[in-house]
Every structure is written in structure tokens, then in C-alpha cells.
Design a protein that fits this description.
This protein has 434 residues and is mainly beta. The protein has helices spanning 65-71, 147-151, 204-222, and strands at residues 8-11, 14-17, 39-47, 50-51, 56-61, 76-77, 79-85, 91-95, 112-119, 124-131, 165-168, 173-176, 234-237, 240-243, 246-264, 272-276, 282-291, 297-307, 311-313, 319-332, 339-355, 363-367, 372-374, 383-389, 392-397, 404-409, 414-418, 430-433. The strands form 7 sheets. Strands 6, 15, 17, 18, 20, 21, 24 and 25 form an 8-stranded antiparallel sheet that branches. Strands 3, 4, 8, 11 and 12 form a 5-stranded mixed sheet that branches. A 4-stranded antiparallel sheet has the order 7-5-9-10, with helices on one face. A hairpin with a 2-residue loop joins strand 1 and strand 2 (14-17). 50% of the residues are buried.
Amino acid sequence: MNHKRAWRRGVALGAVVLAASLSWTGLNAPATAAAGGTAIAGGRVTDNGLGIANVDVAVFAHPTSAALDRAGAAGLPLLPIAVAKTHADGTYKVPGNLAALPAEYRGDEGQVDLLIIADDGQRSVQWGHTVFPAVAARAGIMRVARANEQAQSGRFSDGSLEPATDFDLATGRAAEAGNPPEEWVGVQPSLSAGSSRAVARARVDTHSALIDWARSASASRVAGTGSTTAATSSTSTSTGVTQCGTEVPTGQYQYGVTEMFAKTYSISSIPVTVTEGTNGSTTHTLGIALVSSGGGLSAAGTQTISTAHSGNQPGAVDANVGNRVNYQQTAILCYPSLTYWKPYSIADLLTVYTYAGHVDYATCYPHGKGSAWTTLTATNATFAYGVALTGISLSAQSGYGTSVLLTYNFNVAGQMCGSTVNGPTDSPLVSARL
């Protein structure tokens, strides 16, 4: 196995030699960013399902979209948090303190958008997702549909609810505990678990360079130097000198992209009212796309965004219900294989309705005329093809819980049915019928 970490390659921005340091001018010193705390990432790394020991797992924080907007063309650097090694069974756990990260990397509720890389020197896979502080872990905020499954996953002995992310280096698959791709709405049963999601890979040399950077930064913090030594150099741009490893907007956007997040299977005598933002805001967990050097796209994780708006639409019968969202492209300077399409903002709520056909689920219970049933305690489904981005369809989830309600209004006596044997109050999809 080749563990060589030295990397030299020419890029459009100039030749890059991984040997200099990254300045954090203008940011709060991140010296304590990985100084203990609860786990911010964990899971298992495997080779065709068998755990692998001593694999590097590096965790970085992306700057927030708002911070990137303020920074403009200068951008902001990725923040290396920590590097961990997998244990004999392939499990890993990366400690960190979200509250200690600079403000430019924390959202309104303290959430942080992470980049996680698993790399054995020859193969590597990356995945991204948003983590929230434990105090914010509640329905409508947690990305994974069933928080109780997260708590039972055994990944985090300290009781934290951050989702576990598993990597298989042989297949390139990344899966999150409690929300496996084969359970997503829209995935055909014939698809295997390994083929139900696009492979989220970048160049191994790119990942190796970033892992060296994160390891150096962690060593500097442990040594108490307070510096964040990065394995990267500066490069000249039209706006001046910008450090490699800096995330910058490319200026490309996709506006008004369709986000499908709910299906309202019912009949005309039991109309459905869809409400978003029941607590004054709504959260959306949307897919991220990685742009390959040839221009192709693959799934590279998810990111959770929110909007302080609400919407209400009555009479939705057998409908696919959706919103409009905006996407922004960003790039990591000097790493041409790290260019992303990421969710940027919510354009509008409840603006997309298409006919879904009718489905009757089997686990049903009766409800009387004049009654109403809501999804207040129901779990949400992840839509495998929920975001119709140009070139790729990405996943989408808008949690029912405290931010989204489907209310079934029984103008006649009927039945409420769930897609699992647990019944409608504990199923990702529901339907109503006579």
C-alpha cells in the first residue's frame, strides 16, 4: 500500500507545492477547534463490508454561505478540525467542539457544514453533512429521519446525536446511520445498496494533501502553538494573492431549482393541507454535488439550510409537493477536483405541485367524519431524486416534526394508513382512503 503523501501538480492557478502555511487573518483563532468535546463525526470504514484498521478520517468545516458572501472573491479557507485513525473493526470517532469554531463557520443555530474524507493512501471517499449542537437536536432540525435510530446506533457513547457516516472504500459508498439510501423514496428495489447512490470520489492525491494539512493543523493545536499549519501554498489571482485551500464562490448559480419533499396520497373527500414553517421557519436537507475534472457530477453529501418563512396550501390530493431552491457553485482553490454545487437559499415555498398517482398503504386505522390527522409525530422520507439540479438529481428531505405538517381533513369517515407495519404515526409515507 502506497502511503506517499507528497504531491506536486500543475493547475490552472499555477504550480502548487504542499509546503507552506495558511493565514487565518481576520478570523478568530481556531486553536481550540478540535480540543476535545463530543464527537462531531463517527462511523465505520470498510472494504466491501469488512472493517479496515488505520484508515485516515479527516474532518473539515466549510465556511457558511453568509460568511462567503461577506468575504466576496477573497473567499474563506476550509477549517481543518481533526484527523482520526480507524480502529481494528474499522470504526472511527472524531472529537470536536462546535462552539469553539470561528463564527464564520457556524450557522444561526450553531450548526456546522462538515467535509469528511476517508483515505487509505490508495482509495478515498468524501462526504459532507450538517451537524447541530445537541441542544438543537429536535424534530425538524435533525437531518436523519429517525433520531431514535441514531441514538441506538451505538456510535456515540457520550449520548450525542450527530449522525454517523459509514464509508466503503471498495464501492465508494457513503451512508448515514438511520437513513440508508435503499430506504429513500424513488430508489428502485432492484438497486443494490452499493449502486443506489452516485460514487462520491475526488482524486486521491487531492484528499491526501488535505489530510496532511488537517494532521499538521491538529499537531500545531496539540503543541499549543495556536497556529494552523496547512500543507498548501499561495497563488496569484486577478484580485491578489489567495491561499490554497480557500473556498471561493465561482459566480455560478442555479436559481429556482425544484425541491420535492412530500407526497399527499389521499382522495377528494379527505383533502390534505400542507403547511411549512409551523414554528416560523422551515429546514431543508438538500444534496451536494461534486464536479469532476471532466465536468460530470456525483453526489457528495447533504447540507441543511433554513428560511424564516412559512406557507400553507389546502386541497393537495395525490400530489408531489415541492419548493424552489437556489444553488451556488464553490471551489477549493488549487484543488480543481473539489468544486461543488451546494444549496444556497430557499427561493419560495409550496410552489410546485405535480400529480403523484394514488397509493394505498396497508397498515390502516379508522378515523371518523369531521376528524383531522396530522403528521406531527410522523417521520419524513428522504427523496432520492428530490432536487432537479442540472446534470444530476440529488436527495431532499424536509422534516415533518416541528416545521412541516400534512393535515388530512376527514370530510367523510375513512382510514389513515402507513407505509410500514408501525402504522401512520411512525412511517415515512402515509395515505388516506375510505
